[in-house]
UniProtKB/TrEMBL annotation:
This is ABC transporter substrate-binding protein. InterPro entries: ABC_Transporter_SBP, ABC_transptr_periplasmic_BD. SUPFAM superfamilies: Helical backbone' metal receptor (SSF53807). The keyword Transcription does not apply. Keywords: Signal. The lineage of its organism: Bacteria, Bacillati, Actinomycetota, Actinomycetes, Mycobacteriales. PROSITE patterns: FE_B12_PBP, PROKAR_LIPOPROTEIN. Belongs to the bacterial solute-binding protein 8 family. It comes from Mycolicibacterium diernhoferi.
Length: 337
């Protein structure tokens, strides 16, 4: 990284020494419109040229970059919660995995990145791989998903929101990253495809739904205002925790029984760190516990299975909406728009 900067400075001095003007058209190899300034999560990020050695620190960000056809400009990924989306598997296989979980800063720097992106401030921020000022001091621009900072009281994946998440935050992230990599047309095409898929999932479903992410003893359920809120709004259903402002409140099974959902959305997490991560563990508990076994959804075995990534603010939110829409049609709850 430092070596490249020294060489670049030397090249500039050589040009000036040869009588080249310091103010002229973009030099060969530099895209038009750069340097580019992108306002992101309260800071202005300056991109001198489209990145060629990007590292994405969360699965959501990785899948956006892969969807934009940028695998050849990525030198590392990290923090995976699920298998990569099937249509991206071939491209993903060409990009090194720096770590399945959160990598050390030294590991990231060893990849010699010229750009770093992330979905969550728990990864790109205090207590994460590094905070954004550290990367800036190292000359590496960074980008954090707007879904984890805009409209949130605290910038973390479980925090309270001051305003509900919408797909506009995700579309904005795609648009920003496409501009940064100078592939805006690809960004527009990806946004258009996601919008069409969301529209195809729209319906009116007179049904109460609950989203169980993980943990058996003090389970995390989807609150009103994160990705589960986007999903329920799309299919016209009711989230039984629409009255919360936390994205993932921890609740008791007695509260679940009192609200008694018609359908349970169950996250089948690839990680196996907490009781209730795996789908099989969730179903075994639901059908054997004296409280949960009496739930309407359990009695009727009305389960919609999703990946953990489908319940994060990302392009996978669209997958979650499609899976719930298909499940509600299967259970006979759907009234098409």
């Amino acid at each position: 990284m430092i070596g490249r900067r020294i060489l670049a400075a030397a090249a500039v001095l050589t040009l000036v020494g040869c009588g080249q003007s310091a103010v002229e058209a973009d030099p060969p190899g530099v895209a038009s419109g750069f340097p580019l300034t992108v306002h992101n999560c309260g800071r202005d990020v300056v991109i001198d040229a489209p990145p060629q050695r990007a590292v994405s620190l969360n699965q959501g960000s990785t899948e956006i970059l892969l969807s934009l056809g940028l695998a050849d400009r990525m030198v590392g990924t990290a923090t995976w919660t699920d298998p990569v989306r099937e249509n991206l598997a071939e491209a993903d296989a060409t990009v090194p995995k720096l770590a399945v979980n959160k990598p050390a800063l030294e590991t990231v720097l060893d990849a010699d990145p010229d750009f770093v992106s992330a979905s969550f401030s728990g990864t790109l921020g205090p207590g994460g791989v590094a905070d954004r000022d550290q990367f800036e001091d190292l000359g590496v621009p960074s980008y954090l998903a707007p879904s984890d900072c805009v409209g949130k009281v605290s910038a973390n994946s479980d925090g309270m929101r001051t305003e509900p998440l919408t797909m506009d935050a995700i579309y904005g992230e795609i648009r920003d990253l496409a501009r940064i990599f100078d592939v805006s047309e690809r960004g527009d095409a990806l946004i258009g495809e996601l919008q069409q898929r969301m529209e195809a999932s729209r319906m009116s479903a007179d049904v109460d739904v609950a989203f169980w992410f993980s943990d058996i003893r003090a389970p995390y359920f989807g609150g009103c205002c994160g990705a589960p809120g986007v999903i329920t709004d799309t299919v016209g259903a009711r989230n039984i925790f629409v009255d919360t402002t936390e994205e993932w409140p921890q609740v008791s099974w007695e509260v679940i029984a009192d609200r008694d959902p018609d359908v349970l959305v169950l996250a089948d997490l690839s990680r196996r760190t907490i009781d209730g991560d795996a789908l099989a563990a969730k179903i075994e508990f639901l059908e054997s516990n004296p409280v949960t076994s009496r739930l309407t959804a359990v009695q009727a075995k009305r389960y919609v299975v999703v990946n953990g990534a489908d319940l994060n603010p990302s392009i996978r939110t669209v997958d979650g909406a499609e899976k719930l829409a298909e499940g509600l049609r299967r259970f006979g709850f759907a009234s098409e728009h």
